[in-house]
Structure formats: C-alpha cells, structure tokens
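Objective 1b. Sequence-to-structure analysis of A24 family peptidase.
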Amino acid sequence: MLGATTDMLPDLLRLLAVPALGWAAWRDVRTRRLPNRLWTPLVAIGLLTLAVDAVGHLPMTTVDDRLFFVRVGVSVLILIPLAYALWWVGGFGGADAKALMTLAILFPTYPVFYLPGDAYPLVASNLGVFSLTILTNAVLVGLAYPLYLGVRNALRGDISPIMFVGRRTAVAALPTEHGRLFETTEGFTRHGLDVDALRMYLRWRGTSLAALRGDPETYRDPESVGETHDPTDGAVGAAAVDAGGDADDPDTVPDFDGDYDDPWAAERFLDDIEGNAYGTTPEGLREGLRVVTTRETVWLSPGVPFIVPVFLGLVIALIYGDLLFGLLRAVGAV
C-alpha cells in the first residue's frame, strides 16, 4: 500500500490543478479576467511531475516506456500549438488557451488513483493522452450548454432564432453583465457590441448607462463630450460610474444620429484608446448605443468562458475518464 501511495505522489500533486481551475472558472465567470500568475505554479508542478515520471521510464526498455514519451510528445507538441492557434484566430480567449497549455504539461498521460474497490479514472481512451481527454470532455460539456439555453428560453417564452445561443437580458443589467449584443436596430447579428466595450465607452465619458438612456439626444452630440477619463479594460467592478436604469421613455427615443459628423463621439473614443475595444468599430459602437438607448431588453450572448467546461472536463476526466471514448464504446464503435 505504501508503494502504491508513493507511486501516486506525482499524480496527487497534479490534483492541485482542480481547486486552481475551479477558482479560475468562478473568477472568469464573474470578472472575465484572470491573473497570469495563476499559471506559473501549475506549469512548475507540471514540469516537476513530468520530470519525475520521465526518470521512471528511462532507459526506454519496454513498450510502455516508449508509449509514455510518445504520449507526452502528443500532449505537448500538438495540444499546446493547437490551443495557441485557436487563440490566434479568436476561437479561444487568452485564459482558455493558457489553461489548455498548462493542462497539456500537467496531464500528458493518464493519472491513476487507487481507492478502496476501484482505480480511477474508470475509462481510458486507447490513445492514452489525458490532456486530450480533458479537451474532448470540455467540448462535450460545452455542447450541452446550447440545449440548456434553448430549454431555458422556451420555458420563459423567449422564442427566437437565436434562443439556443443567446439569452434575453434587461438593458439596465448590462453594466454587470458579460457577453456581446446579438441585436442591431435592424435585427440579429453575431457581431454586436461587446458589453466590455460599452463599459469602456461609459467610463471614458464619465457617465452611466442610466444617464445615456435618460437623455440620448444630448449624448449623441459629439460636442457634449467634456473631460474624458481612463476607460479601463471594461471589467466589471472597476472604479467608474456604472449605474443602470431605465430611460425616461425609451419608446419615443429616436434611433437616428442626425447630421453629426461623429455621432456619440464614437470615432473620437476609439482614437483616444488607439482603437482597441474588443474589435469595436465606430459604426458598431454607434449601432450598439442606438440599441441600448431604445430597448428595455436585448438578446445577449451567454458569455460563458471556455475555462468553465475545461474545469468540468477535468473533474469528469479524473473520476470517469474519457466521455467520448465511453460513448463510442457503448454504441460498439470502438
């Protein structure tokens, strides 16, 4: 028993990733911001445990020894570049990519935990690369979320072509929400205003969403911009005026921008911050401002970071194992 416990020491050390990823998922949901210092100790643990395991497989005299190094190579040389590439093309956020890169180092091969009556994980894939198991589990968990959204919206009577990818949200709640508008004044869009960019704009002007909705005609005039302020990065909870509220009579607010050269001072705002507001363009900002000053509710993307299903995928992988492999085996495909 003592020998088995000693053999499990590297894997037990790797379990520190569970509370760390759990905290990261919680923090990312609340703020969409994760400190870079989170990953350094986890990478250090991964390198240490990987070195210990590698020594145990040297010299490479057996098939298992060679398989160990092949699996490490697949995890490090495939998953890390894949995570980086997905971040590069915008498929992942930076924190999501860093989480996957860290897990590729921490869990290149399947851990083993011996408990009374069984050994965990219960189901291992033929490939034997645990980091890929975590990723496929995360994808399967993530695919379940649109179903949840669809059912949730249907029960609330929010029937829409985008009911599986969005949720109806009160405009007054936007100062503490995350995600991207799925609406324009003309209909639905996949490229609406990012709520973080909206917060940046409000902070730059030193105003609130309630004030904007209460007097949109004044704020539409670019000459109404007085002293400007640090827009921050749009995170919820930064020092800024973020009060929500309803417009005095939003149904009567005009949705046109008149003859102004720079309605809402959108172009000036983006020029002041060197144009970096989560991909927002002047026209995209103007369109979003027209929406939030003329609607009581809007369709908003869920804004759930991928690190949440990554954390759940890790927990499932440690207890059950590979969901995809289990499903394929259940239907006789493997």
